[in-house]
Amino acid sequence: MKNDLHIRTNFSASASKEWDYTKVLKKCQEAKLNRISITDFDTCLFHVINKLTDTSSLFSGQIISGIECDVCENGLTFELLAYNFDPFKTLVWSYETYGTLEMRQTKIKDILLKTAQEKGIKIDTTTPFNGKVDFGHKYVYENMKSCPENEIFFTKYNISNLTDFYNLSTKQKDFPLYVNMNEVFPTVKKVVDFIHSTGGFTVLAQPCKSKNKDNIKFLLEISKKYGVDGIEVYHPTHSKEDIKFLLDYCHKNKLIVTGGSNFNGKPENMDVGIANIDKDENEILQGLNL
Asked: Is residue 24 part of a domain?
């Protein structure tokens, strides 16, 4: 069975705006996938649409309800994937918890700009911000880059791209533009408790992506503490060593094993289908009767 349980559409801020759900479903059909989950960031709008309309002409396989939830613990932001929940209840909850994409990204942008002003960091704000399509961190980063006096700042903190800036501003408390994302995102417990209340299950997303052993240990410990049900073992950023480590951890702790492509319609994430999986591997979501 060919699965992919980590796919995004343009309902996610980080995905290409060209890839709406119809185009994504057609791609999954062309790839001959049997089972998929659309896991947009902080919304399950697609799965409500899927309940109200017939998408079988676009994709004939099984579609499991999914969402990728931003969470924050002790100032560290990461993601939980959730599956097999009630889409209608979860859409209401996600709106109450995260707001709309526009609300969320505008809030992040405002926090960053306020912090920059307090620290005396120059940012060109003449460019209009549209929270429906703009990413808060991207807006601030690009408008900092347009100010030549910030070159010293980028050099000092070894920032060469948006990913560097995002990671520093969300994970390094001593970074001048650090944002405590607890002001924006919920805790692990809040997400797990809600998803469980709808009959769904939660999965720690791509824990080895950071390659920071202390962070990986923290993510596994906090997930175990609050009853996360599984781990995304197979992911494009996971090496064979990462996969072996995570599989052993799942077996030892009786956790669900999942995997996905992290497809988002951008050049670096254009493939669908589980990444880094051995042909004889068959334990993805085994025994859940989905």
From this structure: yes
Residue 169 has pLDDT above 70, yes or no: yes
Look-up of token digits 């995304």? 232
Instruction: Classify burial at 59, counting beta carbons within 10 Å of its beta carbon; exposed 0-12, middle 13-18, buried 19 or more.
Output: buried
Collapsed DSSP state (helix, strand, coil) of residue 23: helix
pLDDT digits 0-9 by tens, 22-42: 999 999 999 999 999 999 999
Tell me, yes or no, whether 139 and 15 share the same domain.
Answer: no
- Looking at the fold, whether 247 and 193 belong to one and the same domain comes out as yes
Contact present, 41 and 66 (Cβ < 8 Å): no
**How many angstroms separate the CA atoms of 159 and 99, rounded?**
30
d(CA 13, CA 102): 9
- 134 and 169 co-located in one domain: yes
* Total domain count, the chain: 2
CB 169 within 8 A of CB 112: yes
11 and 82 together in one domain: yes
- Clarify whether residues 40 and 87 are in a common domain: yes
DSSP designation for 209 = T
Predicted TM-score (pTM) above 0.90: no
Beta-strand pair 62-63/35-38: parallel
User: Could you tell me the two tokens for 157?
Assistant: 């903190």
Residue 281 has pLDDT above 60, yes or no: no
Q: Which residue has the tokens 């997400």?
A: 191
- The token pair at 278 is 């051995």
d(Cα 285, Cα 107) in Å, to the nearest integer? Answer: 36
Q: What is the SS3 assignment for 91?
A: helix
Q: Which domain holds residue 26?
A: 3-99+186-269
243 and 208 in one domain? yes
Residues 149 and 258 placed together within one structural domain of the fold: no
